[in-house]
Amino acid sequence: MTENGCSLEDCHTNLFALTDLTGIKWQRLSSQTDLCTFDPTEDPVLISYSKCIQSDILCVWRRQPRTEKPNDQILSNPKELWIFWYGQDPPVNLASLISTELSDTEFGSWENGLTYECRTLLFKALHNLIERYKVLKFCYLG
Length: 142
Known about the structure:
- The radius of gyration is 16 Å and the shape is globular.
- It is 32% helix and 21% strand.
- The mean pLDDT is 80.
- The termini are far apart.
- The chain contains four helices and four strands.
- It has helices spanning 15-18, 44-54, 94-97, 116-141; strands at 24-31, 58-63, 79-86, 102-109.
């Protein structure tokens, strides 16, 4: 479910129904440390995300889902970086964009199945990329 209570399957413009996504691959990376940094210029996930976005790599970051601890603070949950690409190999320059403080948590492909969680993150990454192009276009035309 999304924040507004709708499911991705309920969308009339469901991108996943319109395209062939059998070549989609993804990688989930997370920080090796559990330290919560409040300075975004020191956060390895946000730094890597920014570099990937600038290189037009389809990606998204999020906080790991909450555990059911009663005193669990949302800001104490570690972040993860999800990277998506089409084809056999990841983008050529990916290793140079990813912080050494991040480690592979999970790797997957369409052939292994995309969970609902993974599909919604892919949709969010596509949305972010489209929004970025719209902003760049209006800034240059403005």
